[in-house]
Amino acid sequence: MHTLYLILLAAGLLTLMSLVAGVMSARLGLSFLLVFLVAGMLVGVDGPGGVRFYDTQLTAWVGNAALAIILLEGGLSTRMATFRAGLKPAFGLATAGVAVTAAIVGAVAMAAMDVDWRYGLLLGAIVSSTDAAAVFSVLRHAGVQLDARVSSTLEVESGLNDPMAVFLTLALIDTIRADAGWAEALWLLARQAGFGTLVGLSAGWAMAWLLRAMHARAPNQGGLMALILLSAGFVVFASAGLVEGSGFLAVYLFGVRVRALADEASRGAAVALDGYAWAAQAGLFLLLGLLVSPHQMVEDAGRTLAVAATLIFVARPVAVALCLAPMRFSAREILFVGWVGLRGAVPIVLALFPLMAQVSGSYRFFNVAFAVVLLSLMLQGTFLSAVARWLRVVVEPNAAAADPVKLQGHLVLDGSLPLADVCHFFQVPLPAQPAASLSEWLGEALIAGADQLVWHGVVFEVLQRDDADIVRVRVTMERRPG
């Protein structure tokens, strides 16, 4: 038991210190996830901790499970209006955009690392997809309000582009090992996307029906609902994998579908699931930091910088321009989406695949992928807010009004009014996670049993409800002394 206590003490202190440091770093503009990676590296073989950890199989298992939780929470946080707004551009970025990125990075990797085309493209495929954990985390803590189409494109893309990256990685591993041809590779892509979509959407429909039935009988069981959704998410992820579909795609679409069909029932579980997602991110990034060898990254620093610079400043912007220019995105929006190509846990987990397949020189690729992720979080994540303001893609709801509204008495508003319009009219800032309508926002923001909310001096009072929906809201200005 003494050994167990020491392990729990060390693990608890490490996680606690990382979380506190992450909160403080986020206020300074640094990526929250960056802290966990650095903490793992400090504890690892080249850091003061000196812990020797080389279990790639365990890391891959933990990585896949953690990504399933993160994508599930991301899907449940994505409203159907957001999904529809971003689906078309995100689909192009998640397919053709990933392939173009992999090809450009692969060409540079061939020259920089002195490898043949198969190994170069393999490294390009590993780092080709944006990471849901990184994108969801940075967008929610950036402190800026983006245009709805831009933000939805970024979030939906990060949830959809994993199957293409997995397909390219596995196909190139098989090509190196001479186990499969292009026909088998294309069939792999069809299975990954097709079965992943089928399993995710069908399971989402069934779970939404179950949640609605349970919510009608026990409406205040958010913690229980969260556990049910979490266990169901693992079932969906594993089921898709067993039929050789994409578990990443399946669990994300599962979450989106549940949110669309059982919004009220799943809303109570969102807070608990957010906590699970943070725990999954913390554990995964700490474990990935433990696995890496910083001294080997230093040895390949020049080659790594060439690959990372190509990815951030050439491959991603070119892929985004090719995919979004025909869809009438402005030049500023294209540049911004190109900048927010954050890499996170997914490329590092994909870099474990060739390690487990015993591909020659694959540990070198793992270190390069890890370094690319570090640089991406440090540059793209840290300067996201500054770049957004520099490119003027930030939505300023108060910019058009000259004087604040002077309200005498009160107004009665329809709950279906867009929240952005209401906040603009009353000259108050949008919430950090704005809802589509006034009703949705109050439904999420009000404490259970409460009917009144004060937001920056404006009092919102619920007058009429229709089941779970808020129909009418009375708005008055908060009275202040003097």
UniProtKB/TrEMBL annotation:
<dbReference type="GO" id="GO:0005886">
    <property type="term" value="C:plasma membrane"/>
</dbReference>
<keyword id="KW-0813">Transport</keyword>
<keyword id="KW-0812">Transmembrane</keyword>
<dbReference type="InterPro" id="IPR005170">
    <property type="entry name" value="Transptr-assoc_dom"/>
</dbReference>
<keyword id="KW-0406">Ion transport</keyword>
<keyword id="KW-0050">Antiport</keyword>
<keyword id="KW-0472">Membrane</keyword>
<keyword id="KW-1133">Transmembrane helix</keyword>
<dbReference type="Pfam" id="PF03471">
    <property type="entry name" value="CorC_HlyC"/>
</dbReference>
<dbReference type="GO" id="GO:1902600">
    <property type="term" value="P:proton transmembrane transport"/>
</dbReference>
<keyword id="KW-1003">Cell membrane</keyword>
<dbReference type="Pfam" id="PF00999">
    <property type="entry name" value="Na_H_Exchanger"/>
</dbReference>
<dbReference type="InterPro" id="IPR006153">
    <property type="entry name" value="Cation/H_exchanger_TM"/>
</dbReference>
<dbReference type="InterPro" id="IPR036318">
    <property type="entry name" value="FAD-bd_PCMH-like_sf"/>
</dbReference>
<dbReference type="InterPro" id="IPR038770">
    <property type="entry name" value="Na+/solute_symporter_sf"/>
</dbReference>
<dbReference type="GO" id="GO:0015297">
    <property type="term" value="F:antiporter activity"/>
</dbReference>
<dbReference type="GO" id="GO:0050660">
    <property type="term" value="F:flavin adenine dinucleotide binding"/>
</dbReference>
<protein>
    <submittedName>
        <fullName>Uncharacterized protein</fullName>
    </submittedName>
</protein>
